[in-house]
Amino acid sequence: MYGTIFNLRVKAGHERDLLELTNQPASEIKGAVAWFLMKPDDKNADLVGVAVFESKEAYVANANSPEQHEEFTKWMEHLEAEPNWTDGEYIQAEMIT
Predict the structure, then answer these.
(1) Strand 84-89 versus strand 32-38 pairing type
(2) Residue 93 lies in a domain
(3) What is the DSSP annotation of 41-92?
(4) Within-domain flag for 75
(5) Tell me, what's the pLDDT at 94?
(6) How far apart are CA 34 and CA 25, in angstroms?
(7) Which domain does 51 fall in, by range?
(8) Does 95 fall in a domain?
(9) 18 φ, ψ (degrees, to nearest 5)
(10) Would residue 25 count as lying in a domain?
(11) Could you tell me the end-to-end alpha-carbon distance of the chain, in angstroms, rounded to an integer?
(12) What mean pLDDT is predicted for residues 12-16?
């Protein structure tokens, strides 16, 4: 599995609008396995996101798609700056249900 961990610095008063944009199920994104967005307890901290894809190829294909670019452009209307991205291969994972 491959993906990214990222920080979102949301403009004041824009969190609800951003959350509406990010409400797309991961199942609608080709190659996506999971998607998480965390609001840290520290009220001054950025939102933290995690995206997991079945492969690096699926991740790159999504990142380079016109649809993803359009979504990202909409996100940027609600962010102070471009997110910080940490891309890489997930080398261990366990989901407990």
Answers:
(1) unpaired
(2) no
(3) SSTTSPEEEEEEES-HHHHHHHHTSHHHHHHHHHHHTTBSSPPEEEEEE---
(4) yes
(5) 86
(6) 9
(7) 2-88
(8) no
(9) -65, -45
(10) yes
(11) 19
(12) 95
Q: Which residues fall within 8 angstroms of residue 88, CB to CB, at 6 or more apart?
A: 2, 3, 4
The Cα–Cα gap between 17 and 43 comes to 18
User: What tens digit of pLDDT does each residue of 36-69 get?
Assistant: 999 999 988 899 999 999 999 999 999 999 999 9
Structural domains of the chain, count: 1
Residue 80 near residue 11 (C-beta atoms within 8 A): yes
Is the whole model's pTM more than 0.85, yes or no?
Answer: yes
Identify the CATH number of the domain in which residue 70 sits.
Answer: 3.30.70.100
1 token code pair: 């599995």
Residue for token digits 């959350």?
19
Collapse the DSSP code of 81 into the 3-class scheme (helix H, G, I; strand E, B; otherwise coil) and give the result: coil
Residue 2 neighbours by CB under 8 Å, 6+ apart:
52, 53, 54, 55, 56, 58, 59, 87, 88, 89, 90
CA distance 83 to 27: 23
